[in-house]
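cache lookup: miss for this entity combination. No prior model stored, computing from scratch. Input as submitted by user K.M.:
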Amino acid sequence: MFDFSIVTAWIDHFLRTYLDEGWALLVEFVLVGLVILTVYAVLALLLIYIERKICAFFQCRIGPNRVGPWGVFQSVADMVKILLKEIIKIDRADPLLFRIASFLVIIASICTFGAIPFDPALHAVNFNMGVFYLLAVSSLGVIGILLAGWSSNNKYTMIGAMRSGAQLISYELSCGLSLMSIVVLAGSMQLSEIVNQQAEMWFIFKGHIPACIAFLIYLIAGHAETNRGPFDLPEAESELTAGYHTEYSGIQFGFFYLAEYLNMFIIAAIASTMFLGGWMPLHIVGWEAFNGVMDMIPPVVWFFGKTFFCVFLALWIRWSFPRLRIDQLLSLEWKVLMPLALINILFMALCVM
Amino acid sequence: MKLLNYIQTILIGIYRLLQGMYITMLNFIRPKVTEQYPENRGKVFPHERMRGALTMPHNEDNQHKCTACSICMMNCPNGTIQVITKQEVDETTGKEKKVLDRYLYDIGSCTFCAICTLSCPQNAIEWSIDFEHAVFTRAKLNLQLNKEGSSLIKKEKITKE
């Protein structure tokens, strides 16, 4: 079974033979940051391509098919286009807030991205309260969205940002509560510990019905947090042009775009880590030969397989259902998801006892 | 009772959502209908009733059916059609007769309304399904529909009467 601990251990050894302790650490920090940023950007390109292709397939089209074979370089071309575009200065917009809003959104997204365990060795931020960190950092993005809407000096962006704030803050609750039920089951908030505990059986099987309900609630609430699909009120094209990022252009718009797609990935990654075992292969107690075969597949492949399965679910939902009204959206959260999540935690606690 | 209703609503809601997702999944795995144009060029044709361009069919003797009555020219709302006539002596009767000299058709101003083909008493003009009309200069859009040296098909009036 190949994992990246070989690569990281070799780099660590290599640096320590040529540098002091402190300098080696510094170089490693910089390397980790660079790798995270690169993977972030590449994944964004990949996700944009996947989204466009899958969207096309749901609508009986072929999708991008001109740039490169099967259009695989389409998102690269789009990236070049977006980098070359002018950053327009908005008249009477708040210049400072307008500039930093896009950075806040993408920084929140990258911070969350860093805490995801891709592999036993590829896990940059591994606190003992990792789940708490994930929730805290991912909810920072809403500040950026609210600032973007406020500072753009535009009615559409303002309404979009307000809707987005209401939506994100309320769905954050059931999102967190459904993750909490898994924390109750695992007895730990550390992501590596949670993944290790799923070695025998994934939590969605181990936790019986409460885990399944939590998974469902997490998928719905997480999907709403990405501002996509049936919950895309904050950027409802037909009502608000583009919502909170109407006035942005060039790379600043690109930041919002990147953060949107990566948030989808992050939500899927957290879902796969907490419920589907993260990088842990599928193990069935007693079936030693089967477990051996499953162990041959590298953990990275397991992680990305599960995550892209969740991404596909999100896309499937996005392209199936029409947009909710704002009161329907909020009553779904406060009348259905939150009570269910609360009761679910209780059930989970009873199950664990 | 109220709680039961609440749970029932949720379950029915989930069932309905799954129905919708089933429909979209059927679409997802369905063969795609998109035609990729430059690749399938010449393989797939538009519908036979498509109004691509106005044409004047000629038979193998380079003869057409146009009697140069100019009804199409008068009916054309845009002045797209210009029928230029000339006087010619008929061989059988020996009288002077109006025949078609040039049938000019400016596809650039044509709206493809098909009034010309509807009003033609001789069915001398019809639509082709040819749709690739892009050219580099405006002058290339002025077409002459009758071929060089073409003439009217001789009708055998004796057999009819």
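stored under new cache key. The first helix of chain B runs from residue 2 to 29.
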